[in-house]
Amino acid sequence: xxxxxxxxxxxxxxxxxxxxxxxxxxxxxxxxxxxxxxxxxxxxxxxxxxxxxxxxxxxxxxxxxxxxxxxxxxxxxxxxxxxxxxxxxxxxxxxxxxxxxxxxxxxxxxxxxxxxxxxxxxxxxxxxxxxxxxxxxxxxxxxxxxxxxxxxxxxxxxxxxxxxxxxxxxxxxxxxxxxxxxxxxxxxxxxxxxxxxxxxxxx
Length: 203
What we know:
Elements: E1 7-11, H1 15-26, E2 31-35, H2 38-42, E3 52-56, H3 64-73, E4 80-84, H4 89-97, E5 102-105, H5 110-142, H6 146-156, H7 161-168, H8 172-186, H9 191-202
Parallel strand pairs: 1-2, 1-3, 3-4, 4-5
Helix pairs in contact: 6-8, 6-9, 7-8
C-alpha cells in the first residue's frame, strides 16, 4: 500500500492522536496533513484536494458528521474515514449511510485504519479514471459530424444499415460508410463497444 502522490488529511483535536496517525500513515509513504478542526482544514490551500480524510466525529466547532453533510451538499465526495472515542450505533449508521468509507472506534487496529484509507484512495483513483475516460469520449463524440452523431444514435439503438438508410433518407451504402466512420472515430471495436459508449455519453 503506497502512493507517494496521495494526500491524507487528518482532522482531530487531540494532538497525540494527530501525531500518531501521521506516523502511521507515513510508514506507507502517504503525504499527511494535520488539522485541529474543520475551520482549520478550511484554511488550507485547496489547489490540491486530499484523496482521503480521516475525521474525528467530535470536534470543536462543526462536528465531523456536520462537515460530512456540508461536503455532500457542495457535491464534494472526498472519501471519509471516521474515528471516534464516543461512537454509538445511530452515529455510525448515519455516517455510513452518508457515504463514509469506515467508522472506527478508538482504540482501533492500525491495519484497519490503513485498509480503510487505502480503500478511500482507490475509490478516488477509480473516479478520476472514469472522469478522464468520459472526457475523452465526449471529445471523440464532438469530432463526429451532425450526420455521424445521428447515425451513432441509431446504430446504438440497434438499427440495421437498411433501416437507418430508410429512416433518414440516404442509400444503404452511404449509411454503411457513415457507420464505419463512426466506429473508427469513436475507437469502437464492436457494436457492443459503441453501445456502451453511447450509454455512457447519455448519463
